[in-house]
Amino acid sequence: MIVRGSLLRKLRIESGLTQSQLAKLVGVSQAHIAKIEGEKVDPRLSTVNKILQVLIEGGGKKCKEIMTEGVISTRPNDKIRKVSELMMKHAISQLPVMDGDRVVGTITEEDIIKNLSSTISDEKVEKVMSPPLPSVPENTNISMIRPLLEAYPGVLVTRNGKVVGIITRSDLLKVISKLL
């Protein structure tokens, strides 16, 4: 994909930033931003990347705006068979493992595959689950979860300490694709 000045201008306006504000955040002059948007100069790739990073991550979107609500979860004593059926039915690759309102682990497709055996479907979730996914309050800026999604398949979103949503890597990609 070619990133043109007109696209950067559109993204800047949608983010509610002036050229001066964007220039300050990127570390270039306002005049340079104007030239880039007007396609009067061919900027360095590093400058375009900085601009995109500011516009995509600094757009002010909160986790609650992009999270998937109604988190599908499982319990430690549930069988892997049930988890597999839920994953296939809902086209998801991980589930939080809940003991009441408390998150005690995560079960992923990878966990199931790593423990594949002829008896896996009758095993309990607690035998193959991984540690819990990280969680963040719902008003956290989405720029803060990018590093978490580099290390984990998802991030749980909480309100008053209770899980109210989940953000996966694909959720973040959807946000980015809408901007581009």
In brief, what are we looking at here?
By secondary structure, the protein is of the alpha+beta class. It is 46% helix and 17% strand.
Task: Please characterize this protein's 3D structure.
The chain is an alpha+beta fold and 180 residues long. The chain has helices at residues 5-15, 19-26, 30-37, 45-57, 63-66, 80-90, 109-114, 125-128, 146-151, 169-179, and strands at residues 68-69, 94-99, 102-108, 135-137, 154-159, 162-168. The protein is elongated and about 65 Å long. Strand 2 (94-99) and strand 3 (102-108) form a beta hairpin. The strands form 2 sheets. It has a 4-stranded mixed sheet with strand order 1-6-5-4. It has 2 domains: 5-57, lambda repressor-like DNA-binding domains (434 Repressor (Amino-terminal Domain)), CATH 1.10.260; 63-179, CBS-domain. The model has no long low-confidence stretch (mean pLDDT 89).
Blueprint of the fold:
Layout: H1 5-15, H2 19-26, H3 30-37, H4 45-57, H5 63-66, E1 68-69, H6 80-90, E2 94-99, E3 102-108, H7 109-114, H8 125-128, E4 135-137, H9 146-151, E5 154-159, E6 162-168, H10 169-179
Parallel strand pairs: 4-5
Antiparallel strand pairs: 1-6, 2-3, 5-6
Helix pairs in contact: 1-4, 2-3, 2-4
